[in-house]
Design a protein that fits this description.
By secondary structure, this protein is an alpha/beta fold. The protein has one domain: Rossmann fold (3-Layer(aba) Sandwich). About 30% of the residues lie in helices and about 15% in strands. The strands form 2 sheets. Strands 1-10-9-6-2-3-5 form a 7-stranded parallel sheet, with helices on both faces. The structure holds 2-amino-2-deoxy-6-O-phosphono-alpha-D-glucopyranose (GLP). The site of 2-amino-2-deoxy-6-O-phosphono-alpha-D-glucopyranose (GLP) has 14 residues, from helix 5.
Length: about 240
């Protein structure tokens, strides 16, 4: 486990992008796991800059998103499909067929879940996962619970997550209550994980992730078991770490 504590969000984002770019340069066919939310926005902006200024090449990169809200059309302003294309993928030279994001609208849930895992398997699993964390220690939408799912599944959002994510919607009622989420098994099988967190509101989750006991009550604490984890925090998120 490697810890990098930065001065601020911008520096965290810059370093996370440089780390990701290093992996892409080493392996142009990298299978990259993508996270959403506020945290990785700066990282994606830096990766776009690296594409524009240094010709970082995404033409063979394959991506898998961690999750998608159930019930949102792909072009809904708050869908993670729209988020990922608008904030990152439409601005680099990725090929559409290499992008995988779970659907928010579907008929056969079992089929959708099975297919997502199958595609990940066929791609050889995730090489590098960019990972944020929820204020309650959720990763992807794997929420604190007695039992966690290893595979892609339908996740119910906790009240805390619904409240936290309401800032992106016009009101809390609009926040979907369910999502399709990659399982913790797939996340932990990623060959490398780049974990990013910023701001004081993440300090407690960060402390529980790395200084606490490993428990499904804090899904991110399972990351302590990962062999190739790079943790990039701004100093506010790191302030409670021992
Ligand atoms: C969201 C996403 C997670 C993300 C987390 C933190 O609900 N499903 O993948 O890491 O919550 O979001 P933010 O970066 O906005 O704090």
């Amino acid at each position: 486990m490697r810890f990098i504590v930065t001065e601020n969000y911008e520096e965290m984002s810059y370093i996370a992008a440089q780390e990701t770019a290093k992996f892409i340069r080493e392996n142009p066919k990298l299978v990259l796991g993508l996270s959403t939310g506020g945290t990785p926005l700066g990282t994606y902006q830096e990766l776009i800059k690296l594409h524009e200024k240094e010709k970082l090449d995404f033409s063979q990169v394959v991506t898998f998103n961690l999750d998608e809200y159930i019930g949102l059309e792909p072009n809904h302003p708050q869908s993670y499909t729209r988020y990922t294309w608008d904030n990152f993928l439409s601005k680099v030279n990725i090929q559409k067929q290499n992008v995988h994001i779970p659907p928010g609208i579907f008929n056969d849930d079992k089929q959708v879940l099975k297919e997502y895992d199958q595609k990940m398997l066929e791609a050889g699993g995730i090489d590098v996962q960019v990972l944020g964390v929820g204020g309650n220690g959720h990763i992807g939408f794997n929420e604190p619970s007695e039992l966690l799912n290893s595979h892609t599944h339908i996740a119910s959002l906790t009240d805390k997550t619904i409240k936290d994510n309401a800032r992106f919607f016009s009101n809390i009622e609009e926040v979907p209550r369910k999502a399709i989420a990659m399982g913790v098994g797939s996340i932990l099988k990623a060959k490398h994980i780049i974990f990013i967190a910023n701001g004081s509101e993440k300090a407690d989750a960060v402390k529980k992730t790395f200084n606490g006991r490993i428990t499904t009550d804090c899904p991110s604490s399972l990351l302590q078991l990962h062999a190739n984890l790079t943790v990039i925090l701004d100093k506010k998120a790191a302030k409670l770490l021992n």
